[in-house]
Amino acid sequence: MFSDYSNRLYWKIALTLISILVILGVGYMFIASYTSNKYFQEVNQRLYGGIAEHLVKETKPLVNGVPDTTATHDIMHSMMVINPSAEVYLLNPEGKIIDYVVPYKTVRRERVNLEPIQQFIKDKGQCFVMGDDPKNPDETKVFSAAPIYENEKLTGYAYIILASEEQTEVASSLFSSFIMRNGLFMFLLALIGSLILGMIAVWYITRSLRRITSTVRRFKEGDLSARVPQNEKGDLVMLADTYNEMADRIESNIEEIKGVERFRRELIANVSHDLRTPLAIMQGYIETMLMKKDNMTPIDLDKYLNIVFDSSKKLSLMVTQLFEYSKLEANEIKPEKEKFFVSELAQDTAMRYQILAEKKNIDLKLDAEPGLPMVFADISLVERVIQNLLDNALKFTPENGEIKLVLKHADKGVEIRIEDSGPGIPMDEQLHIFERYTQTAVGRKKKSGAGLGLAIAKKILEIHNSTIKVTSQLNQGTAFHFQLAGVE
Predict the structure, then answer these.
(1) Which of the 8 DSSP states describes residue 389?
(2) CA-wise closest residue to 199 among 426, 456, 16, 463
(3) 21: in domain
(4) What is the 3-state secondary structure (H, E, C) of 272-293?
(5) Please, which residues bridge with residue 415 across strands?
(6) Do 364 and 324 fall into the same domain?
(7) What domain count does the chain have?
(8) pLDDT tens digits, 104-157
(9) Of 161, 192, 224, which closes a domain?
C-alpha cells in the first residue's frame, strides 16, 4: 500500500514537473518571439536611422514650406530602391502629412504624432523609439526623422518608416518559420533534458519518503521500535521527526494502557485479598453468635459485636480508599481550587484528631507561624492529605509519644509538615512508601490499612503541582512535608 502510494506520488510530481516545463517552454517561445521582434526593429532603426537626415542634406524637400516634388520624388525613389521597405513622408511643423512616397497601399492618417519624432531628433537616433504608422492607425513602427529648415526656420520634418507593412509580414512569416523549426527543436531538446534531470531529482528527493514509508510499514506490522534513523531523514527532516514523535507517543500510550491493565488486575487481586480478611472475621463471629446465641453471656455478645463493628469499619475504610485511589489514578478527580487560610484548616483538623491522640496518650501539637499567606488549592483534598498523614502518624507513634503539625513560610507559599516520634522508616523502604499497596515492615506487623493512605496523598498533591517528601531515621521518628502555592 505504501509502495503504491509512493509510486503514485512520484508520478504525480513527475507529471506536474512536465506540465510546468511545457508552460515555461510556451512562455519562453512567446517571450523570445516578442523580444526578437523588438531587437530586429531596434537594429533596423540603428542601421537606417540617419536616412532622413541624409535626405534633407541631399535635397531641399520643402521650398517655402511646399514640397518640391520634382527633386524629392526622384531621391525618394532612389532611396526606396536601396531600401524597399522604407516609406517616406514629409510633414509640416504641426505633423500634418503634406507629401509621401509609399508603395502599394494608400495612406490612412492625415497627421503624425510629433512627440516620438522630437524625442528621436533630440536623442540623435541613439534611443529606441517608435512612431505612428500612417498606413495603419492602430500600429507603431520604427522610423527615421530629421527637421527641415529654411532660412533657419523650421518648415517641416522628413519622416521615414523603416519597416513597411510588407516587410513586417515577410519578417513575421520568416521568423515564425524559424521559431517552428529551430525554436521548437531547441524547446523539445531542453524539455527532454530538463525532464530527465527532473525525474532524477524527484527520484532522489522521494528516496527519503520511500525510506520513511518503509519504516511506517514496519510500525504498522507491529514493530513498535521502528524509527527513522537520524542519517536517513534526508530532506524530509520535519516529516521524519513528526513520525518519530508520533511513534514515541503511541508507544508511550500503549505502555500506559498496559500499565492501566496491570493496575486493574492488581486492584482486583488486592481488593479480593484486603476485603477477604475483615469479611472472614465478620462472618466467623456472626456464625459463632448464631451457634451460641442461647448460651452466650451478655459480656461475650458485646465483645463479639464490637469485633464485628471494628471489622466493618475497617472494611468501609478500605472500600473508601480503594474507590478514592482508583478515581485519582483514572484522573477523574478535578480539583476545585479556591483561596483559603491553611492555618485555619490545620487548626480544625488538629482539634478533631486531639481526641484520638488522647486515647493513645499522644501529645498532638499545632505549630503555625504567624502571618501565613492564603493558599490556592482544593480545600477538601488538602484536608484529606493532612488527615491521611495524621492517621499514619497516629498509627506508628507509640503511647506517650508526640506528633507535631507544623506550618511555616516557604519561598512560594506555605510548607506543611507532620512529624512523629515513631520508630522511623529504613532508608531502603523510604523510596517505595508512596507506592500503592506498599507498607513498611512495622505497618505489616500492625496489619492495619491497605497501604493506600500515602499513595492517595501523593496523587492529590500531584494534581496540585506539588510533591510530598519524607525525612526519617530509625528510632528517631518520621516527618512528611509538602508545600502549597501561596496567593497575595
Answers:
(1) H
(2) 16
(3) no
(4) HHHHHHHHHHHHHHHHHHHHCC
(5) 408, 483
(6) no
(7) 3
(8) 567 888 889 999 888 888 888 778 888 888 888 888 888 888 898 888 888 888
(9) 161
